[in-house]
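Try it yourself: sequence plus pantoate, in.
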Amino acid sequence: MEIVRSLPALRDACAALRSRHASLGLVPTMGALHDGHRALVRASVASGAATVASIFVNPLQFAPTEDLSRYPRDEAGDLAALEATGCALAWLPDVETMYPPGEATTISLTGPAERWEGDARPGHFRGVATVCAKLFGQVRPDRAYFGEKDWQQLQVIRRMVADLLLPLEIVGVPTVREADGLAMSSRNRFLTPAERAVAPQLYAALQATASALVGGGPADGVLADARTALGSAGFGVAYLALVDGPTLVPIQAATATARLIAAARLGAVRLLDNIGLPDRQ
Ligand code: PAF
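Structure, out:
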């Protein structure tokens, strides 16, 4: 696996890969890689693409109140994991490369970026979309891979690519879970043992709620009961909602594109999870 840290080196390495492979796949990451990231790399490799993974902890997607310096970093471990998973090229830009002095351009979003994480973390999706647009321009992949775990992020990126007519396909990869159902996330390492024991109840609540909704229960009542149960288990529930999957607009009844989304705090850790409804996962 080649490792590059400057734009000229990236351009040369991508050109060389393109000359030898039918397609390029990009897996954007902020490092601290886990099995969820490995699944993204594997999906790209399995498509036959030469796979580029970026590692860049993007300051623009952190609010001033969020601790960027606390974001887990493990460059050596990440590079070893990428190499072992079949990645061809690791792209590790610095902040000056991604945000040149005097930079004055960001991506402005509405639609799926509104509500939920958009409300909880103002400016977050502007940062995510801006850095992804830059990565797409730098690597010029045929496909880019994002986890369904961050469902709203995936829809925001899909919408941006459609709206800006960017010439790549966005591929969503199903959430990878621990054996007890907890969705894998770089933040899970910050859970205390007691919180870690409770954390899988978020996924269990989503599953129970999805079954009740498919069984015809009234959405408002079913969702309210689930929020109450999670609160009793120790979660600070930010939202647990039934939404239209692509637009994130709340809906009242199960549809073909419905998605159940949730964010809940356990101690200092904000957990996100989501599922489709049972016959549509
Ligand atoms: O999901 C992430 O890790 C980040 O939001 C992403 C897509 C790499 C952009 O910085």
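One thing you can check immediately is this: Residues 124-139 form the longest helix (16 residues).
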